[in-house]
Amino acid sequence: MSNERKISIEVVEEASGARQLGADKMARNTARFDRTAPRLRKPDWIRVRLPAGNAVQSLKSRLRANSLVTVCEEATCPNIHECFSKGTATFMVLGDICTRRCSFCDVAHGRPRPPDPGEPESLARTIRDMQLKYVVITSVDRDDLRDGGAAHFAECIRKIRQLNPGIQVEILVPDFRGKGRMEKALETLADAPPDVFNHNLETVQPLYRDVRPGADYDWSLKLLQRFKRQHPDVPTKSGIMLGLGETRSQVEQALTDLKQHDVDLVTIGQYLQPTAHHHPVLRYWTPEEFEQLSIFGETLGFAHVASGPLVRSSYHADRAAEDSGLLESS
Predict the structure, then answer these.
(1) d(CA 127, CA 163)
(2) How many Å separate Cα 278 from the centre of its chain?
(3) β partners of residue 202
(4) pLDDT, tens digit, for every residue of 92-147?
(5) Nearest CA to 285 among 248, 318, 232?
(6) 240 Rama class: left (phi>0) / alpha (psi -120 to 50) / beta
(7) Best label site of 21, 27, 186, 226, fewest CB within 10 Å?
(8) Residues contacting residue 280 through CB under 8 Å, at least 6 positions apart
(9) How far apart are CA 119 and CA 117, in angstroms?
(10) Spatial contact of 181 and 147, defined as CB atoms under 8 Å apart
């Protein structure tokens, strides 16, 4: 049975809106990893210093009032306090229930509700109220939708620009995997292209079955390259996590593959296990190793490489895009 067929069956079997987290989410995961591996002690360079104030709760209240969700919260990002204290966030559209069961991700699994037609307008108004100049919009996987949610992304981009003149919009999209879905998604986004197109490779090719069941390494590379060829002036971006069992040579190969598929910007960060039921951290890469990978990425010719233990795909996204020289300063 194909992965696409497995995905569609799971979506039908579950009640709309039901959320599976932790053990419930991972119970039917097809990934193969050692669920009994001991939890490694976090090194000092992983520990996050919390800023003063209560900016996290304040921004959460504003988001809930507008029925909005951030991936910062849903994915348990270690940088949430820093980003929220600066009034920045990565908005997650199309709900907070994902149709996939990736072994690294803490976002709830289940059968999502239909897209909210009022979400693009609400998102655009919230961004205007926050006076943001650069925003990142992402989503859960929506294998239940014919276009994977591309039309919703496009409408969000249009509404954001309509209410926020001069703003720069980065989108972090799912893989749009499935028969005809990539073609439909790229056709839809052609009418409202973002300022930066981001899709995460997440891990090295040999670990895909254990980390991203339902996804395909070559498919993700193809998505990035096809968008770039359709929009040569729009920077493309991707990211990978370390600590899932990959080797240095495999990481270098993944970076090489991304560059060969016309990716401009890349992020490299340390994987952190969300719960005891998720894929374990098998190694903590050192800051020195992240620096070495940054140098390697620069030699490949990326316009910008952000590499560090706490780096995430949308962390300092505005700064990365500006430093690359591919976007005008806002």
Answers:
(1) 9
(2) 17
(3) 240
(4) 899 888 888 888 777 788 888 999 999 999 999 988 888 888 889 999 999 999 99
(5) 248
(6) beta
(7) 27
(8) 33, 34, 35, 37, 38, 39, 40, 273
(9) 6
(10) yes
Q: Residue 214: which of 273, 154, 148, 277 has the closest Cα?
A: 148
First and final CA of the chain: distance in angstroms? 49
Contact 124, 91 (CB under 8 A): no
Write out the two tokens for 209: 């079955």
pLDDT at 4: 46
* Whole-number pLDDT of residue 89: 64
